[in-house]
Amino acid sequence: MFEQILFPTDGSDGAAFVFDHVLDLAARHDATVHILNVTDTTQNSLLEIRGDDDDALEQEGDRIVREAAEQADKQGIDTVTDVVQGEPYREIVDYAEKHGLDLVVMPTHGRRGLERFLLGSTSERVVRRADVPVLTMRPDDDDTISHPYQNVLVPTDGSDCANQALALGVDVADAEDAVLHLLSVIAIPALGVDARPDIQMELLEESAHELLDEAAAFADDAGVDAASTTVEYGPSIHQAILTYIDDHDIDLVVVGTHGRTGFDRYVLGSVTEYLVRTSPIPVLTVQPPDSE
């Protein structure tokens, strides 16, 4: 299903770690990998460069993509390489759109080595703006990241964006021959201090189970059986998802960039944002339909 994969790289250790995963994906899906290096020519970046000229930066970019292509060639993976200049996230998004790619794969931080809970600005912006699915992962979680995927989790709230993620998750589970897990989370604080828990919980549970039944029926129509449809409760949605990931040995979580609260295209939904920043496993994000 992923026939054309974009891998933006800055030559950092984080990018190198993610590239191993990219090659595994490419081998599984018989995909071509587009290896892209973007020389950051924004004003702030140029000030930090302090004397490095464009030729030297381009030569460094050529070296980075050449070495990655050589690594891919040893595994029989077809590649396309390119070195461009500009603002990294814009160039990455434009490249993916221009070449009709199926997937962008990136680490959550790169050469600057941002701290664990701070998502690198380039990856964050690509997740927010790319029209194609974006797969992100934290390079420091090498012990928990594996491929091929055996267990794929799709949390859902019934929104259009969640349904888009469901369709993608079903396709991934089918292509990877993985078990599909469907999850709906009821956040307890959402009830409010004045709510009557018995009535509210009954209504929320009924709604959650209806959503899961519809999601399971969708998967079944696509020829994919849902291993489990689970309603979880917790103080927060993202924490409940992380707990489920840990308890069920999930290898990949597929989510929409925003849900029922209707976040604007350029404001990453808080649940997805938190998952991308903290998930110990790869997170595959997808925009809602007609999000432009």
UniProtKB/TrEMBL annotation:
**Protein's UniProt name:** Universal stress protein
Q: Locate the UspA domain: which residues?
A: 1-136, 149-286
What family is this? Belongs to the universal stress protein A family.
Q: Tell me the InterPro entries matching this sequence.
A: Rossmann-like_a/b/a_fold, Universal_stress_UspA, UspA
Q: Which source organism?
A: Haloarcula nitratireducens
Please name the Pfam families in this protein's record.
Answer: Usp
Give the superkingdom in one word.
Archaea
